[in-house]
Design goal:
By secondary structure, this protein is α/β, with parallel strands linked by helices. The protein contains 6 helices and 16 strands. It has 3 domains: 6-99, Beta Barrel (Elongation Factor Tu (Ef-tu), domain 3); 111-219, 3-Layer(aba) Sandwich (Rossmann fold); 223-261, Dihydroorotate dehydrogenase, electron transfer subunit (Dihydroorotate dehydrogenase B (pyrk subunit), domain 3, Ribbon), CATH 2.10.240.10. It is 17% helix and 35% strand.
Amino acid sequence: MHTKKQILDLQVIKHTSLNNHHVVLTCTSEKKLPKLLAGQFAEISAGDTAGTFLRRPFSIHDYNMEMNTVSFLIQIKGNGSASIGSLQPGESMNVILPLGNSFCMPAEGEKVLLTGGGCGVAPLLLLAKSVIAAGASCDILIGARDEENLMETEELSELGTLFTTTEDGSEGIKGFVTDHPVMQELKEKYSKVYSCGPDPMMKAVATIAEESGVDCEVSLENTMACGIGACLCCVTETTEGHKCVCTDGPVFNSKTLQWHN
């Protein structure tokens, strides 16, 4: 059952620059934040920035119920995300949250693999914490173009064994996430795989998982202009017909997606 959506003004309490194109904004609210789950997202207003009428969707990167804080990993691509990403402590942002569904948690004692490519690392921090809270454990495999774009490695390595790949070989195994040897050990080591990142990466991860007989959940990054299923910008084809990624997802079991047709 989905938690009721709220429109809130959040106050930025910490701005952390990860590299030239990514920042993490940690925020709080005067009101009690609703319960937020790994895989859910928020629609954030870009304020009065020219040409940014629509809100921008960002994954819930981290959430602390006791501290009443929520964090977002912002990839700066255009005017809207640049405006949001430039916010400093003391400034505020207007958000709608929580939106979408969440990852399904493993059973107690299970071991799972989390995979992320580029800014697809965004939902993995809260996911790893949630897996541990469920009594399971995780290994984490992330990839990027180069060492600079491998993000949150220190934070993630505290939650499970961290494996890395880079396309230029500057850190970890040279190649893509699916080139890492751990991907060939799915059947022996893991009960489930979770993935977020570019579609080609998630498709490749899902294919290996399917061939290994391991369940796989993916978080899609379709364009989500409204976040409530009204604009139909984010529709994807599934075995159960067309689904809105923003309301029926963004998390899907990979077997339900019509990727191979």
